[in-house]
Design a protein that fits this description.
Helix 2 (35-56) runs parallel beside helix 4 (102-124), helix 8 (218-252) runs antiparallel to helix 10 and helix 13 packs antiparallel against helix 17. The radius of gyration is 36 Å and the shape is elongated. The chain has helices at 2-23, 35-56, 71-97, 102-124, 132-157, 165-187, 201-212, 218-252, 261-273, 281-311, 314-318, 322-364, 367-390, 392-414, 416-422, 425-437, 459-498, 505-523, 525-546, 607-614, 637-642, 658-663, 671-680, 684-688, 703-716, and strands spanning 65-66, 189-190, 439-448, 451-458, 568-578, 581-591, 622-627, 630-631, 644-646, 721-723. The protein has four domains: 2-190, no CATH class; 201-402 and 462-546, ABC transporter transmembrane region fold (Up-down Bundle); 568-642, Rossmann fold, CATH 3.40.50; 658-723, no CATH class. The strands form four sheets. Strands 6-5-7-8 form a four-stranded antiparallel β-sheet, covered by helices on one side. A hairpin with a 2-residue loop joins strand 3 and strand 4 (451-458). The protein has 724 residues and is α+β, with helices and mostly antiparallel strands. One of its GO terms (molecular function) is heme binding.
């Protein structure tokens, strides 16, 4: 605390000295050396060094930021080193001719000192190699706190604002620092988080881009290009509309020369722009054109993920809950569309509008207006990003609990009949209730009449309270920043109209219209950012599924299986589901062509496991399974399984028509073959007596009817062997 007070004191003294110095340079540069300027040089240099010490402390303001530094950081470092080299040359020249500015030398010297300390600190201090992002953010904050006031002093006390050396130095340094600050905030993460939703942002975007750009459809490609054009055209309208408002107001001051065409054009522009990001003709047209692209993205993602899930081994599926997998799949595909829509049509346009607005106010008005917009917007974005990143852990926790409760509910409903058999309805309801509540005993104590009591808190409710409370805090900070920026700008433009008379009433309308137009999408920026963050989390879960390794696949030299004798050989087969559960231990036998073999044993002895190994649903860790002398691992899976027919012990049928279930064994079977299979199973008349015949769907009829029909159809197909 004492150290921070000392820094603030130095800042105040340096500010007074700077006022005295700049007061003498109203008539332009260069200025002559004096005692006060030398004192100011020393004080502000000391201030800069103190800030550098704070920035380089291992436990700085953002100590908990970890992760690799973004590429922009190293780009900014190189640029700043070049800037410092130019500044040093300017310092030597200034001393040589006895003409200098103490603040410029102080900043240049401070940057040199900083990077000397910075480079050495990565070697000497143990924490910094693991917390580089913490150093980058803390340094950026220190630079911003110094540069922003100096901008104001430079603007007010000098007559050649955009030409003198200090302004150029401040501008370049501030821009580079903001790049480091924002990029590090977005691309690094908090120490308490296992991974940031924005980490590897470019990699995540590169994963979904192939699903956005329709390579095989020129029509869809033209739609994408047209949507981007409408987006760019909308940015131009956002600049033109406030200008027309200014011209209309200024024109009304001279009724005799007023041009009504300004109103017509302004109305047309407003029709095209609409009210915010969700209205207007351009946005409506863009949304209409984007619908087929969104459908293309969803279709490609869902099909690829569904195919990948079918390529995974049975071991993987047995270890996962189907309801949870389907939940992740649904969330993931919808999250990709959300990310694309919000980034392309909300985030990118908003950031572009901010940049255009800053440049517009810098060039049309003066530094103060551009500075107000820049500082307000940067602080708004930084606060939103920082607080939302902090809130991520609450969303992750709630996602995990929701997934768990959803999986329990799905599992319970899938086993509805079993629940009814045992009368365990209330047991399942209680299990679902506890999954939602997740009681947690927190070590919270208080004394009442000499006794200590432990308070039980619902962890879900606690996480929900934290999430809602942090959301309220974020909304308060966002509205406060917008209100301060709007107030500062409005007061300034009113002052310039009424006192200095540099601006007109139309300029006030221009400023307020532009700012309100700019702030409108920012009101939704927090919601958009949180939605994108949630979508990134959901997308991560989906890509985790897509990155699951396929442990049972065709070997590089696998061949098609064409049965000759139909002989099956099992040689010293050993299989275990885990280290503590060995199911098969050294099993060996042979089944000749046309032979019938029965596998007899108690439940859990490995009969079903052996059948799965014959289908190569599991890999054989030791031993081998051969067909006609060929190891099953050297045969293509699809060709092998097509030659094997099976009637499982537990009949699982699709919730579709009887016709679909009969044909499933051989999808290429014709309708005549399906009827023949039903007749061969002697169930044709029974099926045709049903209300819709073979087209009936559902499972109200006897399962044995379906089993016989499927068995008969499989008998018609060419099979290598029959296994029962």
């Amino acid at each position: 605390m004492v150290f921070r007070i000392l820094i603030l004191s130095f800042k105040f003294i340096a500010m007074v000295s700077a006022f005295d110095d700049f007061d003498q340079c109203k008539d332009g540069w260069p200025i002559q050396p004096s005692c006060s300027r030398l004192i100011g040089f020393g004080i502000y240099t000391a201030l800069a060094v103190l800030n550098l010490i704070v920035a380089c402390m291992p436990r700085g303001i953002s100590y908990h930021r970890v992760g690799n530094l973004p590429i922009s950081f190293f780009t900014a470092v190189i640029s700043k080193l070049l800037l410092i080299a130019v500044s040093i040359s300017f310092i030597f020249y200034s001393f040589y001719v006895h003409q200098y500015s103490h603040t410029l030398m102080a900043f240049a010297s401070a940057r040199v000192v900083f990077w000397i300390i910075n480079l050495s600190s990565f070697i000497k201090w143990r924490d910094l190699p693991y917390l580089p992002a913490s150093l980058a953010i803390t340094y950026s904050l220190a630079v911003c706190f110094d540069l922003i006031p100096m901008f104001a002093w430079n603007e007010y006390f000098t007559s050649r604002t955009f030409k003198n050396g200090e302004f150029v130095f401040y501008s370049m340094d501030l821009i580079l620092t903001l790049v480091v600050f924002v990029s590090t905030m977005c691309l690094s993460t908090l120490r308490s988080e296992s991974s940031s939703t924005w980490s590897n942002f470019s990699r995540k975007i590169s994963l979904i881009l192939p699903y956005v750009w329709p390579k095989k459809s020129i029509t869809l490609q033209l739609r994408v290009a047209l949507c981007l054009f409408l987006l760019l055209f909308g940015r131009l309208i956002n600049v033109a509309l406030p200008l027309y408002s200014k011209w209309i107001v200024d024109g009304l001051a001279h009724p005799e020369t007023f041009q009504y065409s300004l109103i017509y054009i302004s109305t047309l522009l407003k029709f095209l722009q609409g009210n915010g990001a969700m209205g207007g003709f351009l946005n409506t047209l863009r949304s209409y054109l984007w619908i087929p692209i969104q459908q293309y993205t969803t279709r490609e993602l869902e099909v690829e993920l569904f195919a990948h899930l079918h390529s995974l081994s049975l071991r993987w599926h047995l270890s996962r809950k189907t309801g949870l997998v389907l939940r992740v799949m649904d969330r993931g595909t919808s999250s990709v569309n959300s990310i694309l829509n919000y980034i392309l049509f909300n985030i990118v346009p908003t950031i572009t509008d901010i940049i255009i607005a800053v440049v517009f106010f810098f060039s049309t008005f003066n530094f103060y207006f551009g500075g107000i917009v820049l500082v307000t917007m940067v602080l708004y974005l930084v606060v939103t990003i920082y607080v939302t990143e902090w809130r991520t852990k609450f969303r992750r926790d709630m996602n995990e609990k929701e997934n768990a409760s959803s999986a329990i509910a799905t599992d319970s409903l899938l086993n509805y009949e079993t629940v009814k058999y045992y009368g365990n309805e209330m047991y399942e309801v209680d299990r679902f209730r506890h999954a939602i509540e997740w009681l947690l005993q927190l070590p919270v104590y208080f004394t009442l009449s000499g006794f200590q009591r432990k308070i039980a808190v619902y962890s879900f409710q606690l996480a929900e309270w934290r999430s809602n409370a942090s959301l309220a805090l974020l909304n308060f900070l966002q509205n406060g920043l917008i209100g301060l920026g709007m107030t500062a700008g409005s007061v300034l433009v009113a002052y310039l109209i009424t006192v200095d008379q540099q601006l007109t009433v139309g300029d006030y309308v221009l400023f307020t219209t532009y700012i309100l137009q700019l702030y409108a999408p920012l009101n939704f920026f927090g919601t958009v950012y949180r939605t994108i963050q949630k979508s990134f989390i959901d997308m991560e879960n989906m890509f985790d599924l897509m990155n699951e390794e396929v442990d049972v696949r065709d070997s590089p030299n696998a061949v098609e299986y064409h049965p000759t004798e139909g002989k099956i050989s099992v040689n010293n087969l050993i299989f275990a589901y885990n280290e503590n559960r060995i199911v098969l231990n050294g099993i060996s036998f042979e089944v000749g062509s046309g032979q019938s073999v029965a596998l007899v044993g108690p439940s859990g002895s490995g009969k079903s496991t052996l059948i799965r190994l014959l289908f190569r649903l599991f890999e054989c860790p030791e031993g081998s399974v051969s067909y006609d002398g060929m190891d099953v691992r050297h045969l293509k899976l699809r060709s092998l399984r097509k030659q094997i027919g099976i009637v499982p012990q537990d009949t699982v049928l699709f919730n579709d028509t009887i016709k679909y279930n009969i044909r499933f064994g051989r999808p290429s079977a014709t309708d005549e073959e399906i009827y023949e299979a039903a007749k061969a199973a002697m169930i044709h008349d029974k099926i045709m007596s049903l209300p819709e015949g073979i087209r009936i769907s559902g499972f109200k009829d006897s399962l044995q009817v379906h089993r016989k029909a499927i068995t008969a159809l499989l008998a018609l197909a060419v099979m290598a062997c029959n296994i029962d």
